[in-house]
Every structure is written in C-alpha cells, then in structure tokens.
Amino acid sequence: MRVIVMGCGKVGEQLCRMLESSGNDVTVIDAEAANLARLGDEFRGRKVIGIGFDRDVLVQAGIEQAEAFAATSPSDNVNIVAARIARNIFHVPRVVARLYDPRRAEIYRRLGLVTISMTTWGAERIHEMITHTNLDPVMSFGRGEVSLITLEIPPHLEGRQVKDLTVPGEIQVMVITRDGGAILPVMGSEFHSGDLVHLVVHAAAHDRLDALIGI
C-alpha cells in the first residue's frame, strides 16, 4: 500500500517504521529535517521536507497515487487541514488524523474525518485495566487493545459449548487446558468441570465477558 505520513514526531516516526516493516511503500512529510533524520538510513521510504498541508508538497510526496494518509503532527489544526485536503481534494481512500483535544473529535466526525484521540484512548485503556481486576490479563497485544485471559470455567458453563462463550470480533476461546493436556477447540466443543479456558478478548468486550461468566 502507498501511504503518506504527515508529521514525523514520536507517533509519526513509530508509525512509519511499523508501516515499512509490514511491506508498505511509505512517504513521510515534515517541516523539520531533524525530525526526518531520526528515521535513520535504514528507513527505505521517501522523506519530504515541507508543510504537510501545502498542495505542492503533497503532490511531491505522491498524494495523487496515495492509498492512505495519516496526519500525525503535533498540531490538531494542521492535522485536520491536511486530512481534509487529502480526503476532499485528492480523494485518498483511507485518511486518519491524530487529535490531542478529544473535544474536537465529534466536530470532525461530522465532517466525515476519522480521528484518533490519544487522550481519550489512553483514558479508556486505564479505566478498563482498573475496573476489570477480576480477570487479570496474562498478556496484552498491541497497545492493550487485545488481551489473553485465562480462567477456570464457572459451574454454570459446564456442559455448555465454546460457541456460548464466543462473540465474533470480541471474545474468542483459543485453548482449553484439561487434565494436564491442551485442546484446540471448535465451536461445538463442550466445557468440563475444572477446565482452564484461555481466551483472547478485545478491550471493549470486558463487560460482556464479565456477564457471560457471571462476574
């Protein structure tokens, strides 16, 4: 995928590295050469020095062929202007803008822009970790969006099937440990007394999991 990242601060730099490592064609724009230099010589993508919402700079970066655009500069206003240009003028299919002020998110959502507020996202993750202490994650993936959780099957689920503890895209039973052995279950597999169930759970689904297992 041909991706343009506008803004090479901490978030933009990390995003560029992630995109490149997964095989994407990445171009990064920043007004400061020093910010671009942090990517180092190992970065194989293109580096463009300039203002991220300047039309000529965007054309130089290949906006007319871009399949995705991420605005990650330190300025909400710059990110939104650049994102709107990418979406409305150059019709880039996938456009995401980073926001610092979550109060602006609803305004820009009405304009049809996808935004990520790190303030809101971070607060939600902390809230989930604090309020769901009954099910401590064994491991977290990404930035905590998905967790691996192990629990002993509660009595009311004994004899029930894996499908009864599965919510597509939110809760998935990965492994059942029984009598010292491990089972890769299918939807029709039954839970037995003493089973240890290993699930992957999306952060937004903890309340639903609590309800399913009776917490």
Spatial order of the strands forming the largest sheet = 3-2-1-4-5-6
Fourth-tier CATH superfamily name of the largest domain? NAD(P)-binding Rossmann-like Domain
Quaternary arrangement of the chains shown? single chain
Specify the helix fraction band.
25-40%
CATH topology of the largest domain, what is it called? Rossmann fold
- What is the CA–CA distance across the termini? 44 Å
Helix and strand string, N-terminal first? EHEHEHEHEHEHEEEEEH
CATH class category label of the largest domain: Alpha Beta
User: What's the total number of strands?
Assistant: 11
The biggest sheet, with number of strands, parallel, antiparallel or mixed sense and barrel status, is:
6 strands, parallel
- Note the total helix count: 7
Tell me the fraction of residues in β-strands, as a range. 25-35%
Which blocks of ≥5 consecutive residues have pLDDT under 50? none
